[in-house]
Design a protein that fits this description.
Layout: E1 2-10, E2 14-16, E3 20-30, E4 38-45, H1 53-74, E5 86-92, E6 96-98, H2 106-114, H3 124-134, E7 142-149, H4 160-168, E8 172-178, H5 186-192, H6 197-200, E9 201-204, H7 210-222, E10 226-235, E11 239-244, E12 251-256, E13 259-267, E14 273-276, E15 279-283, E16 289-292, E17 294-300, E18 313-317, E19 320-322, E20 356-367, E21 373-382, E22 388-398, E23 407-418, E24 436-445
Parallel strand pairs: 2-18, 4-5, 4-7, 7-8, 8-9, 19-23
Antiparallel strand pairs: 1-3, 3-14, 3-15, 5-6, 10-13, 10-17, 11-15, 12-13, 16-18, 20-23, 21-22, 21-24
Helix pairs in contact: 1-2, 1-7, 3-4
C-alpha cells in the first residue's frame, strides 16, 4: 500500500514570544496489495443530504477507486480484481444494505454504485455492522473498511463501539468526510478510524474533491511499503530546533539549528505500521502573529512514493508594540533616461533632521489592561569630564491595551535630532566623532480607580 498517510502536527496553537513547542511529523505505510491480498468494503453514505452533485461525485470517486484497485492487482483494467483481493459495497441511510458480497467483478461493483439514490437519515452503526459481517474470517486476506459520510449520526445506536470492535480484530478503517452539507464532526471520524487518526482520516468541504480523495486512497492501498526513507524538515528562520527526541522508528540527525533529517530503513513492508518523530522548536523572532512553522520539508524513498506534508501554523503572541512617532512620507522622484542635471521641487519641508538622529526603544513591563501610560524620554550627552549636557526630553501618551492580563509594551522609534555643533564628546569642529549619551525614562499610569473622599471626578 506504500505510504498511506503523512502528517505534521504542532503541540499547541499559540505560544508567547520566545516560547517553545513540539513538532510531530508522522508517516504510515502498508505492504503491496499484490503480495498482501486485501478485502476492501466501501461503506457509502446515501442519506438525503447526499442528493445532487454530492452523490454524483461520490459515484465517480468510488468507481475510480475500483478501477485503480483493478489495475494495481493484475497490471491492467481488465474488469477483474486479481491477486486474491476483493471489494464489497455497503450503502446506508436509515439502515444499511450489503449491496454486494466480496467479489472481483468490476462491472458488478460499478453497477451497484451507479444504482445508489439519496434519501433518509444516517445510520453509521448499521453500516459498520454490515461491513463487519462481510469481513468476518475465515479469509486470511488483510481487511480494510473505507467509511464515507457527509453527516452526523441521526439514526441507530452509537457507532463507535462497533467500529472499535472491528479494529480490535485487525480491520483497518479509513474515514472520508464531506463537511460541506450537514457537517461532519472530525473528532468522531478520528474516533472510528485506525490510529494514528492523522493517517486514516481525510475531510473535504467540497464534493468536487471526492474523486481525487478516493483516487489518492486507492494509490496508497496499491503501492508497496517504503524503504530507504529520508525526510528532511527545515523550520522557518523565525524558529530554531532545540532538541530532537528518539523517533518511534528510524534515526535522526540535526543538520543545523533549523534542519532535522529523519531516516527509516523500511516502513510497512510486511504489515501496516506507522512512525513518528518529535522535536522541540523555540521562537527566536522576528515574526509574530500567525506564523508558518515550515520553511520546507522534503521526502524520498527507494520506491518513488510521492509524499506531501501539511504546513501547520501557530499564533506567536509577542509584546504589544507602540510607535509614537511616524516617519515622514517620502516624496516620489523619477529620472527619465540619461540627464546631466535634474531640478526637482520637493515642496516645503520642515527642518527636523539636522545632525545625527538617535532612535530609542524601551519596554514598559507589566502594563495592566485598559490603562494609558504617560512616558517621558530624557536624553543627555556626556563630555570628557563626565558632565552631562541636556539634549532633549520627549513626553508621549501610550494607549491602553485590551489583553486579559498585564503585558509588556514595547515603545519603539523615539527619535532625537542632535546637531554636530552641540558635540561635546569629541574634537570640536570635526564630524562623525564618537558621542556618548545617557537616556532616562519616566513612566506612570494616567488611568486609575483612586478617588478622594467626598470628591466627584
Amino acid at each position: 500500500m506504500g505510504i498511506t498517510n503523512s502528517n505534521k502536527e504542532l503541540s499547541t496553537e499559540r505560544i508567547d514570544c520566545g516560547g517553545s513547542f513540539q513538532v510531530r511529523p508522522s508517516l504510515t505505510a502498508a505492504p503491496d496489495i499484490v503480495t498482501n491480498p486485501t478485502d476492501i468494503v466501501l461503506i457509502l453514505d446515501r442519506s438525503g443530504s447526499m442528493a445532487g452533485n454530492a452523490l454524483a461525485n461520490l459515484k465517480n470517486g468510488a468507481k475510480a477507486f475500483i478501477d485503480m484497485i483493478d489495475e494495481a492487482t493484475d497490471g491492467s483494467q481488465d474488469g477483474q480484481i486479481g491477486a486474491g483481493s476483493r471489494i464489497a459495497i455497503v450503502s446506508f441511510a436509515d439502515t444499511a444494505t450489503a449491496n454486494t458480497q466480496l467479489i472481483t467483478s468490476v462491472s458488478d461493483l460499478k453497477t451497484v454504485v451507479d444504482s445508489l439514490t439519496a434519501r433518509g437519515s444516517t445510520n453509521h452503526a448499521d453500516a459498520f455492522a454490515k461491513a463487519s459481517e462481510l469481513l468476518t474470517p475465515p479469509s486470511t486476506n488483510a481487511r480494510v473498511m473505507v467509511m464515507f459520510t457527509d453527516g452526523q449520526t441521526t439514526a441507530g445506536p452509537p457507532p463507535s463501539p462497533i467500529a472499535a470492535a472491528a479494529r480490535a480484530t485487525g480491520v483497518v478503517i479509513y474515514a472520508i468526510g464531506l463537511s460541506g452539507n450537514t457537517g461532519v464532526d472530525s473528532a468522531v471520524l478520528e474516533d472510528w478510524a485506525s490510529k494514528p487518526a492523522s493517517a486514516y482520516v481525510a475531510i473535504t468541504p467540497d464534493d468536487a474533491e471526492l474523486e481525487e480523495l478516493f483516487k489518492d486512497l486507492a494509490r496508497n492501498i496499491a503501492n508497496p511499503g517504503a524503504t530507504n526513507i529520508v525526510v528532511t524538515d527545515t523550520v522557518s528562520p523565525c524558529f530554531r530546533i532545540t532538541s530532537v527526541a528518539m523517533p518511534t522508528k528510524g534515526t535522526t540527525s540535526l543538520l543545523d539549528a533549523n534542519t532535522v533529517q529523519w531516516q527509516i530503513d523500511e516502513l510497512g513492508v510486511t504489515q501496516s505500521e506507522g512512525a513518528a518523530l518529535e522535536f522541540t522548536v523555540q521562537h527566536i523572532g522576528p515574526c509574530s502573529g500567525t506564523a508558518e512553522v515550515n520553511e520546507s520539508i522534503s521526502y524520498y524513498d527507494a520506491e518513488g512514493n510521492i509524499v506531501s506534508f501539511p504546513s501547520p501554523e501557530l499564533e506567536v503572541d509577542c509584546d504589544i508594540i507602540v510607535l509614537p512617532e511616524i516617519c515622514p512620507e517620502p516624496v516620489e522622484l523619477i529620472i527619465d533616461g540619461c540627464e546631466d542635471t535634474l531640478e526637482f521641487d520637493a515642496g516645503d519641508l520642515g527642518m527636523e533632521s539636522l545632525g545625527r538622529i538617535v532612535q530609542l526603544s524601551v519596554t514598559l513591563q507589566n502594563v495592566c489592561p485598559n490603562r494609558r501610560v504617560a512616558l517621558a524620554a530624557i536624553l543627555t550627552e556626556v563630555d570628557n569630564q563626565g558632565l552631562e549636557h541636556k539634549r532633549g526630553m520627549k513626553t508621549m501618551l501610550i494607549p491602553s491595551h485590551a489583553m486579559q492580563t498585564c503585558r509588556d509594551v514595547t515603545v519603539r522609534c523615539i527619535k532625537f535630532v542632535l546637531p554636530e555643533s552641540l558635540d561635546v564628546s569629541g574634537t570640536a569642529g570635526s564630524i562623525c566623532n564618537t558621542r556618548n549619551f545617557k537616556a532616562r525614562f519616566i513612566a506612570n499610569y494616567i488611568d486609575n480607580d483612586f478617588e478622594c473622599c467626598n470628591t466627584v471626578l
